[in-house]
Amino acid sequence: MDAAFTEEQDEIRRTLRTLLRERCGPDEIKAAVQTAPGYDEALWRRLARTLGLPGLALSAAYGGVGCGVTELALACEETGRVLLPSPLLATAVFAAPLVAALGTEAQRAELLPRIAEGALTAALAVPGRALPEALGLVGARDGAWAGGGRAGGVQARPDRDGGAGWRLYGQVEQVPGGHSAELLLVAARAGGYTRGRTLLFLVRAGVDGVRAGADGLVRTRLTALDATRPQARIELRNVPAELLGVDDGGSGSGEAVAEALAAVGTAAATVLAAEAVGAADAALTRTVEYVRAREQFGRPIGSFQAVKHRLADVYVAVQAARSAAYYAAWAAAEGGAGGTEAAVAGGLALAQALEAQRTAAAEAVQLHGGIGFTWEHDAHLYFKRAASDELLFGPVHRLRARAAEREGLFGVADRAPYGGHEGRGGGHEGRGGSGGRNGDGAHGGPDGRGGPDGRDGPDGRDGPDGRDGRDGPDGPDGRDGLRKAVTA
């Protein structure tokens, strides 16, 4: 692994940092989030024109810069440093790669050049609050997040006139950047219950979702915890839509969509980790500057050992998270976003970065004293970003659990830390415990051990231990032996 950045990568970071330092002070940020789109449109156009930021990771064949995940992660580290409100995450990280991966040639030729030049913003709409599940960051990749064919989620059906169009009906609760995006990528279930599959659809939302766009589309901007990361509720009432790519008719059960979403999730984890590192580093820098200037008892408060220790812990956490994010970017660039190593590295980097961001933001509020709790100070902006990111893309322990499963650290019986899995034990040290279950799903005894012959007692509970104090042989279904378990 070559940990050194290229001259081009350093120039991207340096140029973007200089521009954002000039245009993105705390007052400018607070003013931008109060506008209708939730960001500074003039600054967005300048970022697109000067750096090609929306198309940084898009192919040059479609008007992009032709860089990769590493460059996008470095750019987002700088945008995270100033908490830049922009459609960069929703458009360049979530939506554009899906269009590039799944879209037909006509769709790519129409949409990607406009995205690259900053003329078109887009957002990914996933039913419920299941964005991390859909991107494969947490949970199993079983498609359950999309809703069933009978109820829940967003439903898709072909147009009754027999054309190539589709109609969508349903609601999506949380769509980052969805209130102002001109193009929505909506994940919906098609094929009913028997041939159900998850597909992605293009909805031309128009400007503000009111003056132009699809009939039956209602978008409501939500009051989000983090105002710099605006969200919207999307209501689809028989909305006309266009299928992204082609439909396999149910033969592949939407497997191509799941694979594309997982690849986007790997890259997104890396980018989000870098963004969180930038925010954490900025919070730490501001706190260090404050404790150097603030005096108490005739000396700077930063000279007190207790303050030094707390800031030293934050520094270590931020540097460790930065190293993890850079490694994840390298793994994604070298092995591709679809590789296992990149997926594991991205998930772990995101978990570590979210923890570092939360720690840095909390210490910033505490060490700023009374002023750190005020609305006028910007410490609360970093705290809200940290809390919001973990709610949107975490939680941390599930990110780590998913990475462990991908790496194969746990067997099948180890994947359910709460209450067992498919009838397997979930008690302490794998012996079932008073709340665990044995292999056939019945409750174990107080000590979790089976009866003399490994079978349950007459009341459905395990009988006493065998003569040697151990479980008897396996029951008829072969599932009553000792099993390991994960202690939550």
From TrEMBL:
Its cofactor is FAD. Residues 6-118 form the Acyl-CoA dehydrogenase/oxidase N-terminal domain. Residues 414-488 are annotated as: Disordered. Its EC number is 1.-.-.-. Residues 271-406 form the Acyl-CoA dehydrogenase/oxidase C-terminal domain. The keyword Transcription regulation does not apply. Keywords: FAD, Flavoprotein, Oxidoreductase. It is an enzyme of class 1 (oxidoreductase). SUPFAM superfamilies: Acyl-CoA dehydrogenase C-terminal domain-like (SSF47203), Acyl-CoA dehydrogenase NM domain-like (SSF56645). One of its GO terms (molecular function) is oxidoreductase activity. Residues 421-431, 450-488 have a biased composition (Basic and acidic residues). Residues 432-449 have a biased composition (Gly residues). The keyword DNA-binding does not apply. Belongs to the acyl-CoA dehydrogenase family. This is Acyl-CoA dehydrogenase family protein. It comes from Streptomyces asiaticus subsp. ignotus. The lineage of its organism: Bacteria, Bacillati, Actinomycetota, Actinomycetes, Kitasatosporales.
